[in-house]
Write a structure and sequence with these properties.
Length: 451
């Protein structure tokens, strides 16, 4: 992917220049990622007297959680962890309820948001064994699965789960299994030069106060990592689906699926498995925000068109919530993505006879062949259940999404080999409405259609 146009770059730079000036940020970096590549990088402010670069480290806070989640999903894919396992199966000394691994990943465990003792983000950390021992029944604030309740403690436990399975620290597991394969060599648990210093900016004067930096130990999986804009650009590409062999793309897509929403009917924000989700400007975004004393960071991607944005700042507060989406809007305004060119696809599997109208009772559906070799079954009038299906080795089709996700579609033929009907998990689709020659459940009235 080529860099953005000069006019686009100017508009993006102006947006972060306004943000840095109005938010009184010591420094701010931002980047746009398209098709897995860094398409634009911009920076304002100073780090040690110089403009920060794409190699300047910032603390990324809770973006750390997503990387921990990836190792957990690797354990799941290896068969060592089931997402429905009680967490106590993997941490037997835990005395808090029956929450599952999936509930920790999606912040639906009901666990307390923060750990016992002083505020962990500004205090020396405790060992994992001490944290686990300190979590009693009072740490359960809600019934597991009942609601979205963000829990830093939950990801501390996931880090401990990783450590117990891998026999190394969570940070070493992340380093070996994610960072090295993806080439994210400048992402580390503690800062390395050049890095930004975290500051608080006085609310009524243009002066700074350095914020503390320490090893959070047991709570570190909730927000310990430092990274660079260049490494975060690679991470954005990973979340969008360029997984580099670290996870199967289908597993990352599973992580991006909504497990819970945090604003009810509005559904503008939610959580998957270790990934935050947002809906804005017609886009569905996945990624994560991050904050620690002295630092703010965010990575958002839209996997549907493989575009992402990110920022890092060394201030406890001051970055507006809409900065990332404003950057996306600028990109859309100046360089709207062109649709992929349509090209014909040969019917190598001989599926053409399946296409066209099918009827579920009197309701009309259309079956289409998809470029990837799958099929879609959609209601013609727009109202009804739509799903895509992928071929299976036994000749059936597996539902990928919608109401029929995970369900089986069978093509039923007559003894002479001609098409009879489709059986979709007991729902029968026929070539004519209520075809009397097909095996319609309950049968078809012998009198047929009448006035």
């Amino acid at each position: 992917m080529s860099p953005v146009l000069e006019s686009t770059a100017r508009a993006l730079l102006r947006r972060i220049a306004v943000e840095q000036a109005q938010g009184r940020l010591p420094s701010l970096t931002a980047a746009v990622v398209r098709d897995g590549e860094l398409a634009w990088f911009g920076a304002r402010g100073r780090v040690e007297g110089a403009t920060p670069t794409s190699g300047t480290q910032y603390r990324i806070g809770s973006i750390t959680k997503s990387l921990v989640a990836v190792v957990v999903m690797r354990l799941r894919d290896e068969g060592k962890v089931d997402l429905l396992d009680p967490v106590a199966k993997h941490i037997p000394d835990l005395r808090v309820g029956e929450m599952t691994v999936a509930q920790l990943l999606s912040h639906t465990s009901g666990l307390s948001a923060e750990s016992p003792g002083p505020w962990w983000e500004r205090a020396e950390g405790m060992p994992a064994a001490e944290l686990v021992a300190a979590l009693g029944p009072e740490a359960a604030k809600h019934r597991p699965g009942r609601r979205y309740h963000y829990s830093n403690v939950g990801f501390a436990l996931l880090g401990e789960l990783v450590a117990r399975h891998r026999g190394v620290s969570w940070a070493q597991a992340v380093h070996e299994e994610i960072l090295l394969p993806l080439g994210m060599r400048d992402t580390t648990p503690r800062p390395r030069a050049p890095h930004a210093t975290g500051y608080a900016v006085h609310p009524w004067a243009d002066v700074l106060l350095p914020e503390p930096e320490h090893d959070a130990v047991a709570m570190a999986p909730a927000g310990q990592l430092w990274s660079t804009p260049a490494d975060l650009a690679r991470w954005a590409a990973f979340v969008a689906g360029d997984t580099g062999g670290v996870l199967a793309p289908d597993t990352v897509a599973e992580m991006r699926e909504p497990a819970i929403v945090d604003d009810g009917d509005a559904w503008t924000g939610g959580y998957g498995l270790g990934l935050q989700l947002a809906r804005t400007g017609g886009r569905r975004l996945a990624g994560h925000t991050g904050s620690m004393p002295g630092f703010l960071a965010t990575v958002w991607v839209d996997p549907s068109d493989k575009v992402g944005v990110l920022f890092t700042a060394n201030s406890t507060s001051g970055v507006s919530r809409n900065l990332p989406t404003d950057l996306l809007a600028i990109l859309d305004q100046h360089e709207p993505r062109l649709p992929e060119e349509w090209t014909p696809v040969a019917d190598t599997a001989g599926l053409l006879e399946l296409t066209g109208p099918w009827y579920w009772g009197p309701s009309v559906y259309a079956l289409r062949l998809l470029p990837d070799g799958g099929v879609s079954l959609n209601p013609v009038g727009g109202a009804g259940r739509a799903s895509r299906f992928t071929a299976q080795a036994d000749g059936t089709w597996l539902g990928l999404d919608g109401y029929y996700a995970g369900e089986t579609l069978r093509v039923v033929r007559r003894p002479d080999g001609s098409l009879s009907h489709l059986d979709l998990n007991t729902f029968v689709f026929t070539r004519t409405p209520y075809d009397p020659e097909a095996d319609v459940p309950g049968g078809v009235d012998e009198g047929g259609w009448r006035s």
